[in-house]
Amino acid sequence: MTNLKLSVFPFLLILLLFSNGSTIAQTVVEKNGKLQVIGRYLCNQYGEPIQLRGVSSHGLQWYSDCVNESSIKELRDNWGCDVVRVPVYLKQEGYLTDSVFYMKKVYEIVDACVDLGLYCIIDWHILTPGDPLAGEYNGAFLFFSSISRKYNGNINILYEICNEPNPTIESGGPDWDRISEYAKPIIEEIRKNTDGIIIVGTPQWSQLVGDVVGKKLNYNNIMYAFHFYSGTHDFLKESFIDAAYRIPIFVTEWGITEAENINSNLYLKQSDNWIKNMERMKVSWCYWNFSD
Predict the structure, then answer these.
(1) pLDDT-derived band of residue 5, with 50, 70 and 90 as boundaries?
(2) Rounded mean pLDDT of 9-20?
(3) Which of 32, 70, 71, 113 is deepest in the core (most CB within 10 A)?
(4) Quick one: which of 145, 164, 53, 69 has its CA closest to 107?
(5) Active-site residue 258, yes or no?
(6) Peptide bond into 129 cis (omega under 30)
């Protein structure tokens, strides 16, 4: 569902979702410092629950010129963004095609976020195959080992270690145990370098967050991803709300259209309800997507 380009009108409309506006006196990182998970909340360095709101870029192999220090500064100053998500596509002309170009661009964006005082999510963005134990996922261990060493001690970075896991029926179906098996060695490798926030994808394209309740991973500062599109996934709202009262969730991708048709109608009423619920529960989010 993520290989979609946001049309101009809804992209401009998303401006209405941010409230900070204009030049800032103190950056979000200066204000909140090192993030931590306490109970079901993402909290700042003082242990206070916070909500981050921002955008995800699209594939850097297609829209790399759009995401740079100048545009990120605009997102911070005039859109009120607190966080930028950087998807590292493996396939579709992505990381596996030209890892040198891709990593250079990722470092450029991360460094810009650090300089501008924003939080930054580095996202290992696999669409297919959905099984996180498939061979294509093997590179995640070395990728996050390298990234976490490079940014060791940096408080701006969050690590999203699998975008939308969706194990096939042959491998056991959408299974949290299988995702956990994938996640544990990567988490332990990242923990050699940092105790920063790690976000783990959940079953069925990061929709079945309820599967994690009662089966959380036994590590500190872990959050669980949830993805939705207002025109398709309104039926998931109650299960999301129930899970969000029990486990720490970060909505790392959402949109105001249908999941498989970005040029569909805009589901504004449904989106407004989602936004209010996320704000009420202090669930952080990134909107899909920022591209030209």
Answers:
(1) very low
(2) 52
(3) 113
(4) 69
(5) no
(6) yes
- Between the alpha carbon of residue 195 and those of residues 28, 48, 157, 221, the distances in Å are 19, 18, 10, 7
One of 30, 48, 69, 164 is an active-site residue; which one?
164
CA atoms within 13 A on the CB side of 173: 2
**Annotation marks residue 253 as catalytic:** yes
The catalytic position among 160, 189, 253, 258 is 253
Contact 148, 112 (CB under 8 A): no
Under a CB-based contact definition with an 8 Å cutoff, are residues 174 and 201 in contact? no
Span 33-73, pLDDT tens digits: 999 999 999 999 999 999 999 999 999 989 989 999 999 99
Q: How high is the mean pLDDT of the chain?
A: 90
- 182 membership: H or E segment, kind and range: helix 176-190
Structure tokens at 142: 């070395």
- β 222-229/284-290 pair status: unpaired
